[in-house]
Amino acid sequence: MEVDEAFSLISHAIDSGHAAHGYLVVGDLKGGCDELTDRLLRKLFPNELEQIEAKGHPDVAWLEPEGAKRIIKVESMRERIVEPMSLAAFSGGWKVGVIVGADRMEAPSANAFLKSLEEPTPKTLYLMLTDQPDAILPTIISRSQRIDLPLSEGLLQDEDYEQVSELFAAKDAAGLATKLAELKEDADDSDVQLVRKRFFKTLMSFCRQMMLGGNLPRYQAFRNVEAVEDAYRQSERSMNDEAVLAFLMDRVVFPSS
Question: Which of 10, 31, 122, 150 has its CA 20 to 30 A from that of 201?
Answer without folding.
Answer: 10
